[in-house]
Amino acid sequence: MSFTKTKLPERIAPKLMALASSAALALSLGGCAAVGGGNIPSANTPISQSEAQQGAEADPQLLAEFGGRMTGRHADYVEQVGKNIAVQSGLGNAREDFQVRLVNSSVNNAFAIPGGYIYTTRQLVALMNNEAELAAVLGHEVGHVAARHSQRRQAATQRNTLAGAGLAILSGVLLGDTGLGDTLSRGFLQGSQLLTLSFSRNQELEADRLGVQYLNSAGYDPRAMGMVLANLAAQNALDAQIQGRDATIPQWASTHPDPASRVQNALQMAQGTGILNRDTFLTNIDGLVYGDDPAQGVIEGQQFLHPDFRLKFTAPNGFYMVNGTRAVSINGQSGQAQLTTGQYNGNIEAYVRQVFATLGGQQQQITPQSIQRTTINGIPAAYGTARVNAQGGATDLTVFAYEFGNNQAFHFQAVAPAGRTNVFGPMFNSMQRISQAEANAIVPRRLDIVTVGAGDTVRTLANRMAYPNAQEARFRVLNGFSSTDTVQAGQKVKIVVRSR
Question: What integer pLDDT is reported at residue 131 of this predicted model?
Answer without folding.
Answer: 98
